[in-house]
Design a protein that fits this description.
single chain; 97 residues; alpha+beta; three-stranded antiparallel β-sheet; 3 helices; 6 strands
Length: 97
């Protein structure tokens, strides 16, 4: 899926989640799969508890993590959000063009 900076992302309501030893564990209802996020994935997951734009997520990452290469960060962020979308962990509200 293609994302733009103004698209809004939010956690799916069809998941169960728990923070365990600093990592977020998320189970998807449709397939009962367990997903474990690293430190940055956990940070992003917490950030998208409420609808937020991709750009706002990126700004939050830059503010909270040291020495962020913005180009690489946005590339990785788009990839991560695409994976979350494919696994039905998030919903996306596309901006009107």
């Amino acid at each position: 899926m293609y994302f733009s900076l103004g698209d809004r992302v939010v956690q799916s309501t069809r998941v169960a989640q728990r923070l365990f030893e600093g990592s977020m564990l998320v189970i998807t209802a449709h397939d009962s799969m367990l997903h474990r996020f690293n430190k940055l994935g956990t940070f992003i997951w917490k950030t998208i508890e409420r609808p937020i734009t991709v750009e706002e997520i990126g700004n939050s990452i830059c503010k909270n993590f040291d020495e962020v290469d913005k180009i690489k960060m946005y590339s990785d962020l788009f990839l991560f959000l695409s994976e979350l979308y494919k696994k039905q962990l998030v919903t996306i509200q596309k901006i009107a063009k």
